[in-house]
# Entry
Amino acid sequence: MDHFFRHEAGRILSLLARIFGIRNLALAEDMVQETLLQAFNQWSFGPIPENPSAWVLTVAKRKVLNHLKRDRFLEKNAEAIAYEIAAPADLDAIFQEKQVGDSMLRMMFVCCHPALPPESRVVLALNILCGFSIREIASALLSKPDAIEKRLSRAKQEFRRRNLPMEIPSGEDFATRIRSLQTCIYLLFNEGYNSSHPEILIRKDLCGEAMRLCRLIIDQLPSHRSSLALMSLMCFHTARLDSRIDHHGALVLFGSQDRSRWNGELIAWGHHYLAEAAQGEELSEYHLEAAIAAAHCSAADFASTDWKSIDQFYAALAELKDNPVIELNRAIILFQTSGPGAALALLKELEAHPKMKDYYLLHASLGEAYLRLGECMPASDHFGRALALTASGTEKEFLKGKMAQAAQGPAHPLRASEGP
# Structure
């Protein structure tokens, strides 16, 4: 049910916004939430309708209309009246996948309208289309929940005030908005791949939602190369999900993952989408990240990974995109190409970056570098800081193990082949 509700909320809200207009978005949001709560209560103890999606749409649409009539606003909603007159008796007709896909794509582009600040576009899309909570958005954007709540409130006020048209943009407007849209999908996937939920490290439903939204773009815009590259990247990463956690729920380091558990079909799809994305002159960050993921997935084992090529891809990515996390990833690659000393030097530079000082993966990586160099005291300190900064129970247990390793002294360093 949780997956269904998250999946359906964006679909139905997009359809209702198209029917009743963007100015009634807040009302549509309230009615969708009310309908999903009603569905949860009814379906938990009774039969589920044959077509749950159509049921939710029908009930939510009726609630919106009743609210408009009750408040005597109906005469101001000509598009709603026109829809009521022309609507087919069978509501399954409007829920055909083509209609849903078109409405969702239009809603995606509305959320990424250039009249809104870039940070507002991302927050709106994550909240409206993907059902992200304030906490999840804050985690995805490395921000504080209070700041995200204020940003979301201001964005929705502006969103409604402008009553933006639900249309497919063109020209430079299209390029600007699709970049924002891809960022939203990328962040959604990352939240699923490494969840901010304290008890769940991996949320496959969010990864699936991100891939579904990207698939929607590809279906509607099949020649858009960077979207194909983004889909490739997500296929490669999703292929490895089952190997990241062992049978006891413990985190498994990349170098120790059982590659027989990797999904070969998804890896093949990743290569397919990457080949499609390469047909053109465009080189986006997603092309480079997909190439990195492809190199990892193509290696027979951890030791035979082409680390130098991966480092070159990261160098090109750093030129294309100013993001300290890219430098963190380059530092992790240095563990393999140049040793822990070189990795530590770059990691210490990153400590001074304002966005990285409270990033748990930086401190986990610093702890790893010190541990490999036999400096157990600073290793334990950084593992402790990482432990305090992550909410994930799985990661906390992993870091406690690291601290115990450091407490044993330099005679028990982590084998280099295990990787950071």
Notes: The chain is about 65% helix and 0% strand. The chain has a mean pLDDT of 85. The CA atoms of residues 20 and 79 lie 6 Å apart. The two ends are 36 Å apart (CA to CA).
